[in-house]
Amino acid sequence: NAGVMQNPRHLVRRRGQEARLRCSPMKGHSHVYWYRQLPEEGLKFMVYLQKENIIDESGMPKERFSAEFPKEGPSILRIQQVVRGDSAAYFCASSLTGYYNEQFFGPGTRLTVL
Amino acid sequence: SQQGEEDPQALSIQEGENATMNCSYKTSINNLQWYRQNSGRGLVHLILIRSNEREKHSGRLRVTLDTSKKSSSLLITASRAADTASYFCATDADSGGGADGLTFGKGTHLIIQP
Question: Is a pLDDT exceeding 50 seen at residue B99?
């Protein structure tokens, strides 16, 4: 049973470009979470999604960031017009059910903005 | 939002010794989880302890939870070089079924000297 998969593992963008990060949850999991880890810091929650629904986006920056989890295909975290401060590791996690359940993490996507 | 804070920030011990890491948090929780992150890799879930539990064991890991002091400890017994990693605690807030994102601390970096 494959774990949570994220791609790409490393992404380099120039300021002003768009970044698309993909996350495929574990088989059978319909709950996806995105976290951001800035250098030398812990992980910070960004958004929680179920299929076709955003459940909680309280951790998402108000501008330039969006997330989706379509009926078919992976969850996508999209960052428009990237800035240097967006450079970070972005982790996706999935769980079998929501509330208080164990979350399984992917290997992360390391975004570098030049 | 609340934040788990690990202590110490860094810990270096000899192989075979026990390693103890602590985590404090601010608000009521449903559960507390410990994760390990090897350098440059994704997070690995270690153990989850619910708010009504006081102690939990898993192999060489022992986790305690004191909800009155809002703190938890992770003990790794008979440490091995492979235990070298960063260890994070993550709390799931008791927000009446609201956000399902975990709140992570900055982590304790554990180094096991051979």
Answer: no
